Amino acid sequence: MAEPGAAMRPELTEARRDLTFDVEAIDESGQRSTVAIAGEHPLTLYVDRRELVTLMTLGQAPEALALGFLRNQRLLEGIDDIAAVHVDWEVDAVAVTTRAGASDFSERTARRTVTTGCGQGSVFGDLMAEIDAIRLPVEPRLTQRGLYALLDAVRRQETIYKQAGAVHGCALARCTDDGMDARADVLYYVEDVGRHNAVDAIAGHMWLDRIDGADKVFYTTGRLTSEMVIKCAQMGVPFLVSRSGLTEMGYRIARQVGLTMIGRAANTRYLLFTGAERFDR
Amino acid sequence: MAEPGAAMRPELTEARRDLTFDVEAIDESGQRSTVAIAGEHPLTLYVDRRELVTLMTLGQAPEALALGFLRNQRLLEGIDDIAAVHVDWEVDAVAVTTRAGASDFSERTARRTVTTGCGQGSVFGDLMAEIDAIRLPVEPRLTQRGLYALLDAVRRQETIYKQAGAVHGCALARCTDDGMDARADVLYYVEDVGRHNAVDAIAGHMWLDRIDGADKVFYTTGRLTSEMVIKCAQMGVPFLVSRSGLTEMGYRIARQVGLTMIGRAANTRYLLFTGAERFDR
Question: What is the pTM assigned to this prediction?
Answer without folding.
Answer: 0.91
